[in-house]
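Standup notes
- DV: blocked on the single-chain target, sequence here:
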Amino acid sequence: MEHVHVPKWLVFFGLVLLVLQQHSYNYSVVAAKVPAVIVFGDSTVDAGNNNQILTLLKSNFHPYGRDFLGGRPTGRFSNGRIPPDYVSEAFGLRPSVPAYLDPMYNITDFAIGVCFASAGTGYDTATSDVLNVIPLWKEIEYYKEYQTKLKAYVGHRRARTILRQAVYLVSLGTNDFLENYYIFPRRRLEYTIGEYQEFLIGIAKKFLKQLYSLGARKISLTGLPPMGCLPLERATNIFDNNKCDDKLNKVALEFNAKLKSMTTKLNQELPGMILVFTESVYDLLYGMIKKPASYGFEVAGVACCSTGTFEMSYLCSEKSPLTCTDANKYVFWDAFHPTEKTNHIISTHLIPLLKEKFLN
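- DV (later): unblocked, structure below
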C-alpha cells in the first residue's frame, strides 16, 4: 500500500480538535471572562425550577417561551430570555443559564452556570409558603449540594476558584410585599411596613453573609421594581383610573434605599467582597413604563398575554385569542413579568457596570 503523507500541521490541528472535544468544559471556561454565573431569587430570574415542584406557579407551557431559543417553554416567566441569560452570554458563557432542578442538565452543564431561583419566593419564608415554592434557605441548601457535586467533578482546588470567581446574581423581594404583606394579613398584624422592610433587610444581610462564607465574592443584588406600575397592580387601582399605585412605588424606593445602605456596610465588613446594588433597574423600568416610545415600545399599561391585566402562570393560556402577536411592542409579557425585549434592555444597561466591578 502506498504511504500517504499527512502534513504535520494537519496532525496538530486534528489533535487540537480532539483535545477541545474531550475538554469542552475547560475550553469554555478559559474562553470566558468569568468561570460561571450562579443565580438566586424569584420569577424574575427563575429558569424553570418550579417545573419540578408541586406548585400552581409554573410557566412551562405556551405561550411562555414562544420567542425563546427553539420556541421552547422552559419555565421562564417571559416570552423569551431573562436577565441571567444575557449576563451569562455577555461574560463569554452560554446564552442561557439552566435551572438546577431541570433533569435535562447535570453538573457538566452547571459547572459554568446554574440557577437556584424559584418563582413566587421571597426573603421571608412565609412568602414561599403562599404558593408552595422553594424558600430562600432551600436555595442555599441546593447551592451547598451543587458545591459538593462541583468538587467531585473538577476537583476541590478548581471548584474553590470557580466559586470565588463566579458572578452571583440575586433578585427577589417583590413577592414579599405584593404576594405576602398586602394580600395576607399575618405580617401586617406583626409589622408596620417600615418594620417589615427592616425584617427583610435582616434576612437579606444574613443570606448574603452566608453566600460569602460559602465562597461567593462577586454578587449583584437587584432591588425592587416600580411594583405599583405592574399591570396587575394598575388593574386593581380602579379608583385612580388604573394609574400606577404611588404608595407601592414609594415602598419599593424606601426598601431599595435600605438595601443600598446594607450593601455599603457589607462591602466594608467583608474582606474581598464585591457586592453591587443595581439600583438603576427601578428608574430604567419606570422610564419604559412612563415613556414607552422612547424605548421602542407601544404598550406599557397592560401586558401582552390575554387581557394583560391580571393573567400570569396558568391564566396566561395559549388558548386565549387576546394574546398579542408581537411581544416586542409591550413592556410586560404577563401581568407581573417583563417581555424578553424589556429584559434585554435592562440587562444591556447593567452589564457594563457588572463588567467594570467584577472583571479585575
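- Follow-up: Residues 209 and 269 are 10 Å apart (CA to CA).
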